[in-house]
């Protein structure tokens, strides 16, 4: 089965081992992808554990499950980010030198409400400094269905390394978040090369 994060790998080769705890992500992007897959498969404990310690305060598995209720996450698109890629490379080398390494980047379902009702325009001032190898940013668009309607969450996320492992800290929503219309005969957003109506559109039922 193709991974939920829409990579070219299977779930067992991509995000599965991270969610199960058998491996740790070696880049911020890997963590972001695995967090998306965790939302798609309702593994909320993994999502909680991959926040920074600061952000874990006041959160619970029940909170995360409640915030994701009614949303079916079905596709992910990661946007090229030169700065994030450069920092990922540096941190990947740093983390791979340790036995117990992990990376975090997330799609947080609680943001879906903000995406529909209160999305903020992206601003450089909202991004953390990426001048050090223990910080990175990842820009992504996540797609989900709710009440048979299609939505997108476009976010630029901040990641940092804690105890040798990547963690998701926070993110800034772009102003194109919210409900969208997508032609049924267009190529599916998941990159399967199938028409949308023959692919992910069936998950809205």
**Beta strand %:** 15-25%
Oligomer: single chain
End-to-end gap: 20 Å
Helix content: 25-40%
Structural class: alpha+beta
> What does the overall shape look like?
globular
Could you give the order of the helices and strands? HHHHHEHHEEEE
For the record, the CATH class is Alpha Beta
The count of DSSP E runs of length 2 or more, i.e. the number of strands, is 5
Overall radius of gyration: 16 Å
Instruction: Just name the CATH architecture.
Output: Roll
Query: How many DSSP H or I helices?
Result: 7
The CATH topology turns out to be Nuclear Transport Factor 2, Chain: A
Largest sheet: 5 strands, antiparallel
- Overall average residue pLDDT: 82
Total domain units: 1
Uncertain parts:
83-91, 93-131
Fold and architecture overview:
By secondary structure, the protein is an alpha+beta fold. The model is unreliable at 83-91 and 93-131 (pLDDT under 50). Strands 1, 2, 3, 4 and 5 form a 5-stranded antiparallel sheet that branches. The chain is globular and about 45 Å long. Helix content is 28%, strand content 22%. The chain has one domain (16-204): Roll (Nuclear Transport Factor 2, Chain: A), CATH 3.10.450.
